[in-house]
Amino acid sequence: MKRAGLLVLGLVSFLIGSAILAWCAYGLFMPNDHFRFRLVEVPKLLLPVAMIWVGWWWMRGERMQSAVTYGSQIELTLDLNGPDFGTALEREKALDLKHRLEQVLAEGRLGEIDGEEFGDGACTIFIFTNSPTEASSAIQTFFHSEGIERYSLKTSPL
Predict the structure, then answer these.
(1) Does residue 111 contact residue 156 with C-beta atoms inside 8 Å?
(2) Which has the higher per-residue pLDDT, 67 or 22?
(3) Rounded CA gap, 27 and 34, in Å?
(4) Of 54, 68, 52, which is closest to residue 6 (Cα–Cα)?
(5) Extents of the domains making up the chain
(6) What is the pTM of this model?
(7) For 23, 98, 110, 149, which has the most beta carbons within 10 A of its beta carbon?
């Protein structure tokens, strides 16, 4: 939702800024009684230029951020009760847990979750990090607070 909101606000800002600049350009080359743009008013162009820049920045969003290169991967394996892929309720709970863990890792800037895999009676969550010791500690603290004991962590360099 946040991403969609930034995209909409960015588009609106970009379009309004572009319309103001187009209106100023029209007034510069085709003066009329209602609007006469003079070169003395050039500093007033800072607002529409800023609106265009902010709009473009918001529309691009996360794509503008430089890609982070991680040095380690943590495989977090949750044991499921159901056979093979677990029950639908277990899968739903595992995905909910993954999203909450993703927030914990993002808040601590410890890494990011790449995805999950269900099979063989387990759910494996793949986590990329540059500080595997700190991330493992945060994961263990998170699982302890959730009261979950049936999991395992495996760290490997990338």
Answers:
(1) no
(2) 22
(3) 9
(4) 54
(5) 2-64, 72-157
(6) 0.58
(7) 110
